[in-house]
Design the sequence.
């Protein structure tokens, strides 16, 4: 008999990490594989942030901190929300955790009763449904097709809400689609939510700075201030400041929720690393030039990938509006045969084929709840992206 908790029986490991592992395994055998599975900025953390970490460590800022985060970092985050998003929060409304992922985990742990439902617009970030299941909830997947810009509409949302709905997840720009919601889109969702007071909203805004074609970011909190007492605005430094390994995420929300999340934090990890919190203050309060430089680089890569993929017969790609992924449609490959005679039954088979024959690692759409697609990360150099597209094109051309 297994000693592993039954809770784990319903939970899958991260599909993007699995894709990366498969690429690493092939590499270990000497195969030259391009890994476009995992999504993290390929830039170094800006030097002034690293200097702030050194300074914090040298000055003795090396002890446990308050569970919700140091007063300095919570103040810097409250200021960030005011300055960049037009949101009115005090330091007491803020909680810091080891990445936005832990913020989301803590929020769900603080609120879900067995069988509570969380509405997840698909395609969704792979960890959302697994966290919901791990904590006893039921993910309710609502497909948001490419024809609606991969965005949730009030009509689709209304059909998914039940008396058991505890959470609605929103993610903009979205991973994997890059979809962005306008203020009008958010207000329309908010008007519907106003009629369903049992629903909390988790707005994951971690890619807010990676927006293309001159778009302006509108936080859910700004568009729907009337829902402030049931909205959790989630963000972090991972993507904007190239700080994925520092593990700092944060959220602003209603006092009872923030308090419950910091209680969980105090009994699990105590606090986030004191040095990483000091670095986060420097990131949020320091010069922001690198953030826009990263954004420009991601936009140039987005353009390169859209041009390249559009020249491949059999693949489709609507230009992503933000984030650093391309969610590539592969409907016309499904049912066709590889040179070895295997039928490409679904997008998982397409991703496997691209890995084995094209030597490019991607993540199949099935992992994001909307098929048939595969996701590539564009957070890599233009040379590598060129070569990856060349390989994908050559592999797709071989499909009969
Ligand atoms: C939508 C989304 N939310 C959260 C995260 C996790 O961010 P963090 O590094 O802050 O845990 C990711 C990372 O890929 C993401 O894509």
Sequence:
């Amino acid at each position: 008999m297994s000693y592993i908790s039954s809770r784990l029986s319903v939970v899958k490991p991260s599909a993007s990490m699995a894709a990366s592992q498969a690429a690493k395994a092939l590499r270990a055998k000497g195969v030259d594989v391009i890994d476009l599975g995992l999504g993290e900025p390929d830039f170094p953390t800006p030097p002034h942030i690293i200097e702030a970490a050194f300074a914090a460590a040298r000055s003795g800022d090396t002890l446990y901190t308050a569970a919700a985060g140091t007063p300095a970092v919570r103040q810097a985050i409250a200021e960030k929300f005011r300055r960049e998003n037009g949101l009115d929060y005090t330091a007491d409304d803020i909680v810091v955790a080891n990445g936005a992922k832990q913020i989301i985990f803590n929020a769900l742990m603080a609120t879900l009763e067995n069988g509570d439902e969380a509405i997840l617009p698909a395609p969704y970030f792979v960890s959302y449904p697994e966290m919901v299941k791990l904590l006893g909830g039921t993910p309710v997947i609502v497909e948001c097709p490419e024809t609606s810009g991969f965005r949730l509409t009030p009509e689709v949302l209304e059909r998914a809400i039940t008396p058991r709905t505890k959470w609605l997840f929103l993610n903009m720009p979205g991973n994997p689609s890059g979809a962005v919601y306008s203020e009008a889109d958010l207000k329309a969702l908010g008007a519907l939510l106003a009629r369903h007071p049992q629903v909390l909203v988790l707005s994951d805004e971690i890619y807010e700075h990676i927006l293309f074609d001159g778009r302006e970011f509108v936080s859910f909190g700004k568009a729907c201030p009337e829902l402030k007492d049931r909205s959790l605005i989630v963000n972090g430094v991972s993507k904007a400041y190239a700080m994925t390994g520092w593990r700092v995420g944060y959220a602003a929300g209603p006092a009872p929720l923030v308090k419950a999340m910091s209680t969980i934090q105090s009994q699990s990890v105590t606090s986030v690393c004191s040095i990483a919190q000091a670095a986060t203050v420097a990131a949020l309060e320091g010069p922001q030039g690198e953030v826009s430089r990263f954004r420009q680089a991601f936009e140039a890569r987005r353009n390169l990938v859209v041009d390249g993929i559009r020249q491949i017969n059999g693949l489709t790609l609507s230009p992503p509006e933000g984030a650093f992924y391309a969610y590539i449609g592969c409907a016309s490959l499904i049912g066709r045969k590889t040179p070895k005679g295997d039928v490409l039954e679904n997008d998982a088979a397409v991703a496997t084929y691209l890995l084995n024959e094209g030597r490019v690692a991607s993540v199949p759409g099935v992992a994001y709840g909307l098929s048939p697609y595969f996701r590539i990360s564009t957070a890599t150099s233009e040379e590598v992206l060129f070569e990856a597209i060349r390989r994908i094109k050559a592999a797709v051309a071989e499909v009969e």
Q: What stands out?
A: The mean pLDDT is 96. The pocket of pyridoxal-5'-phosphate is lined by residues 39, 99-101, 125, 171, 175, 204, 206, 236, 238, 244, 249 (CB under 6 Å).
